[in-house]
Automatic annotation (TrEMBL):
This protein's record includes keyword Metal-binding: yes
Lineage, broadest ranks: Bacteria, Pseudomonadati, Campylobacterota, Epsilonproteobacteria, Campylobacterales
Record's keyword terms, sorted: 4Fe-4S, Iron, Iron-sulfur, Metal-binding
SUPFAM superfamilies in the cross-refs: 4Fe-4S ferredoxins
GO molecular function: 4 iron, 4 sulfur cluster binding; metal ion binding
Species per Swiss-Prot/TrEMBL record: Sulfurospirillum diekertiae
InterPro entries listed in its UniProt record: 4Fe4S_Fe-S-bd, 4Fe4S_Fe_S_CS, ET_IronSulfur_Cluster-Binding
Keyword 4Fe-4S: yes
Protein name (Swiss-Prot/TrEMBL): Polysulfide reductase / sulfide dehydrogenase, chain B
Length: 221
């Protein structure tokens, strides 16, 4: 298994339902700086016309996760399905993983006295077909969660029909949040940069399969 999430961000209405569901499901502390998932907002103008782009974000559960390689106690580790997790009992709050993560996807949970992050809600019986709280709650169906190794999964079916990109791809982490390129050409142009690389599933799958196989010995079966 190789869990990932696709984000059809054009459909995001910034209702915050996903953030609320995540906090409730996972017992996340209240506060703007206590977030497993969040909606990033980028504002700008085109020929004097203002716009705002909404980018749902969270831990990318990278295949080459720098937060795992930098952790001195193995608190940050790969779990079943390639999910990146933190063992609170091993965490010494050195915050090396927070510095290493290019997505700012970690925070300190003061109740556990440890670093916390998104776990793709792996307690929700994912093997039996469960999904994340954020996907289950989203009213506009922004999120599609699933197994990249399952050709019949909803996420693979979606990625086969769409073009997509990754955030901060240049960091080389092999992230597993797939941002679906909007069908609306104008929206697509205003929401990606000139340096953004657009991918197709046929192109990216062999590279991700190879990287997944390389990492598989570190992932619990």
């Amino acid at each position: 298994m190789n869990y990932a999430m696709a984000l059809d961000y054009q459909n995001c209405i910034n209702c915050k339902a996903c953030e609320v569901a995540c906090k409730e499901e996972n017992g996340v502390q209240l506060g703007a700086d206590k977030q497993r998932i969040w909606i990033g907002v980028v504002e700008g103008t085109i020929f004097g016309k203002p716009f705002a782009n909404l980018y749902p974000s969270q831990c990318n559960h990278c295949i080459d996760a720098p937060c795992v390689s930098v952790c001195p106690t193995n608190a940050s580790h790969f779990a079943q399905g390639g999910i990146v997790k933190v063992d609170a009992h091993k965490c010494i709050l050195c915050k090396g993983c927070m510095e290493a993560c290019p997505y700012d996807a970690r925070f300190v949970d003061d109740t556990m006295v440890a670093v916390d992050k998104c776990t793709f809600c792996d307690h929700r019986s994912l093997v039996e077909g469960g999904t994340t709280a954020c996907q289950a709650t989203c009213p506009t169906k922004v999120r599609t969660f699933g197994d990249l190794d399952d050709e019949n999964s909803d996420i693979v079916k979606l990625l086969k029909t769409k073009r997509f990109f990754f955030q901060k791809e240049h960091t080389g982490t092999l992230p597993k949040l797939f941002y679906i390129l909007p069908n609306d050409e104008a929206y697509a142009k205003q929401s990606v940069s000139h340096n953004t690389i657009i991918h197709t599933w046929e192109e990216i799958k062999p590279m991700y399969d190879q990287a997944r196989n390389r990492r598989s010995t570190e992932w619990k079966k």
